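Extended Data, panel c. Modelled sequence:
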Amino acid sequence: MRACFHDPQYYFAILCNILATISSGGLRAFPVLVYSSFGFDALQSVLHGLPSSAIGWVFILLTAFGVNRFPKLRFPAASLWNIVPMIIFPIRWIVERQQ
């Protein structure tokens, strides 16, 4: 148990989990509430969320196959998939506010 706290991978896993939770928290945890505020019902909110879930699933599979083939890409891939949403969501918010 003590060896776990001395391993830096443990803290990187915690950091990746926190970053993933921050970047996808509101839109993944409460999609019905978010879409209902735009006037959609529960079924329409699910239908609007399916494409993004499918794209995410494909990228997770591609990343898994890539990391399996090139193990040293594990941390850069995890960093990339956490940084991209943290950049896209503020840009999307700014664009939606300007419209």
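Helices lie at 2-6, 8-29, 31-37, 42-69, 74-98. This feature is highlighted in the accompanying rendering.
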